[in-house]
Amino acid sequence: MTARATPPEAVTPGAARRILNRDQEAIRRVLDGGPDRIRRGPGGLRRGLVRRRRTTLLALAVVATVSAAALVAGLLSWAPDPPEQARTLTAAEHERLAAMRVTNYRDLRSGLHVTTGDGAARTELIGWVDWSRPLVYLDVGGPGAGAERGLLQATPTVVLLRPDPTAVPTPAPPPLVPPADRWRLHDLPAGHGLARLLDLLFRLAADRPEPAGAAPEAARWLGRDTIGAEPVDILQAPPPSGLTTAEHPRYWLDQSARLHRLETRLADVGPVTVQLNRANRPTLRPVDALGGRPGLPRALTAAEQERLNRLAGRLRARGGATVTLTAPVGTDTNLRGAGWLSWTRRTAYLTVADLGRPDRRTLLHHGPDGTARAELPATAVPGPAEAPGRPPLPRHSDGWRAGPARADDLDLLVDAALRAGGSAGQRGQAVRVRGDSLDGRTVDVVELRTSRALLRYWIDRSGLLRRLELRTRPGAWAQLDLTPGSVPRWTAPAPGRARPADG
User: Fold this and answer.
1) Do 261 and 227 form a contact (C-beta atoms < 8 A)?
2) Quick one: 9 exposed, middle or buried, by C-beta within 10 A (0-12, 13-18, 19+)?
3) % of the chain residues with pLDDT over 90
4) In the beta sheet, which residues pair with residue 445?
5) What is the pLDDT, as a whole number, of residue 39?
6) Euclidean distance between CA atoms 446 and 435, whole angstroms
7) Using DSSP, how many helices (H) and how many strands (E) does the chain show?
8) In 3D, which of 80, 57, 76 has the Cα closest to residue 68?
9) pLDDT in tens, 420-441
């Protein structure tokens, strides 16, 4: 039996397989007897079997040697096919890239794992994006998180942070029902690294197609990949309009125009990787400062309108309320407060703390003749800045400064609460935003647009006001929680002791 040798440099894995198949067929012919006949007779059968074993063993040795040499030569000389070269996009790829943002918008939500920077500056963000609201809800961690470490909720215009300096460096998905306390408006100046990142996440969705770049030749096909079990194309193109990046982003895009991964570089941030988990898309609940969970606004029913009409009279009958204040009123001003208001005397008296000045407290008196404030050290009023105690009784007597009425969001909120119990009530166009609950009570959240502010009344089924919300200038919601009932008496600051406010 003769095997035709194949030059080693010409052997490929396919040729090696053909050699093995051919040699196995040769062995089969030998085992079947070949041209030799086994002689019969005394001793002939034994000699035939011996010759047959020798022939078989010799054939196997030759075949094994030839096959091994062929396989080794083939593996040494074989090289993988060269990768496909980068090229301009086809028309179909252009259409998919242009449809990516609309696909994100229609899919509503996605899970996120974002990594920015590297080394000691690396920051990781895990959570979700809801492009339909729009809203992001993230846990911020990693060695570079700095002051942003903790939970974050943001819209394109408002960023709220629940800082947690003691959190472990490795982030985890945030709780689906966000904590209700310790959220504060967070200042992100233009160009801040986190501001750039949030802008990137929000701009990945739009309600209409948009080409990825003005010049088609600027977009390139770079290769193929698999994410999970999903085959994707890697495309590089200019960023969405309005977004500036240090390099053109690379998109991992499937055949349905769904984005699975993005890589780019952002100024003042460094490398950015965005991983999307498109199967992890729960409904997100905004915190109260962002308006709470979404509803389906509608006109008031007859019963709801009747409760709203009779609200002022019911509040005056109760006399007053104990109040608690939570008010993000500026990009870096977050107020907390506690005190009382009286609808019969049309006055309010509160302790107010600014989280940015934890060592100070402000006493606020609001009445028909305007407002007055007195500054005190934090030690003069019990309680931390997050939950200051109620103002002292009898009323503090020194250091009061008079100020114009309704000069800022805090004054507007307190004034709106007093007007809710006024003889004419608060007038405006009303819609029911949603049903909700507060301290175990079922309430209707009624939105009222007045000439001065956008308000939300939380009215329970007995017709009493349990919370008043005001849309502040930065776009967040301030809350004044009320427990209607009897309140202590206090006196207004003496006119002779009041001084004009600075400025």
Assistant:
1) yes
2) exposed
3) 61
4) 434, 458
5) 45
6) 9
7) 7, 24
8) 76
9) 998 666 677 899 999 999 999 9
Secondary element (H or E) of residue 95: helix 91-107
Q: Is 316 helix (H, G, I), strand (E, B) or coil?
A: helix
Residue written as token pair 């999903």: 230
CA-nearest of 470, 468, 466 to 441 is 466
β-strands 347-354, 333-342 pairing:
antiparallel
Give the list of residues 6+ apart from residue 275 with CB closer than 8 angstroms, or none.
112, 113, 114, 260, 261
d(CA 344, CA 367): 11
| Termini Cα distance of the chain | 110
Query: Is-above-0.90 flag for pTM?
Result: no
CB 174 within 8 Å of CB 137: yes
42 or 262, greater pLDDT: 262
Tokens of 48: 């035939």
- DSSP code of residue 105: H
Letter string b/e over residues 430-462, b meaning 16 or more CB atoms within 10 A of that residue's CB: bebbbebeeeeeebbbbbbeeeebebbbbbbee
pLDDT for 99-127, tens place per residue?
999 999 999 999 999 999 888 889 999 99
